[in-house]
Model the fold of this input.
Amino acid sequence: MNLHRIDLNLLVYLDALLRERNVTQAANQLNLSQPAMSNGLRRLRELFDDPLLVRTSDGMTPTDRALELEPLVREVLTGVERAVQPRTPFEPDKAQRVFRIMASDYAESTLLPEVLALLRQQAPGVTLDIMNPSDVSFLDVERGKVDMAINRFDSLPQSFHQVLLWRDSFSCLMSRDNPVLENFTLDSYLEAGHVWVSKTGMGVGVGVDPDDVQRLGWVDSALARLGKKRQIRVFTRHYQTAMLLAEQHDLIVTLPSRAAQLRAEDPKVVMREPPLPIPPLELTMAWSPLLQHNPGNRWLRRLITDTAHRLDGREPLP
Done:
């Protein structure tokens, strides 16, 4: 195949088709008509001598050849975009842009208010679209539909870039009327009722199995190492809900200390150190290699990282 035969626009079409798995949606993404995109798909099939996308009960499914081409095409287009990208730096004070950030409500409550305050000062035309972990998949991040993801992740795709924002200890939050406060030990902790709260990773969650200790997370894994198990009465994925439930007179919420600190001045609840060692939580920011060199994304990632390090008592990165 001679390079002069290849229309670069066809690679743009193929990239959009593989992102969307839908001819109409790919056409909309590129502001093309559906017939134009269909014609592009026909030319792509001729170029690669492969159907590329096949209609199945699950929609348009890529062939093995298409899956093989997907990262290669993306790498080519990323390189071209980087080559033609203006060398002028991102000017935050003049920017009019929406950044989409996937963040757990823990990160949304403890980190993003500080980030937003700086944005209002430095980039008043920038808008944040904050999305829940259940709204977003790893594929959305990989395809650049989401600018960055901030959460605690068990694992990330190898292609992702990532930076550790901070480590957080754990605290117990409970009502001032909770009788466990009279003698707060590991035994009394285990006898009490507990609120479980977590939203690790991304994607739509499923129901929790109380007996699946490995999937219950940090607190229950730490207890399991001691041969212990707590009595969980409520499972929630929302830290704000968990902190409200801490007002119940017979429940204990064990959660990251930065989240618990949000209720430090509330006279209805008190904070205590857990009666057992719990490994720290690691808050991580991850993003697609497609956005690694985007000036605006680089600026915002730096702002978020520096803010997290300042809140954590560390010096900003040089």
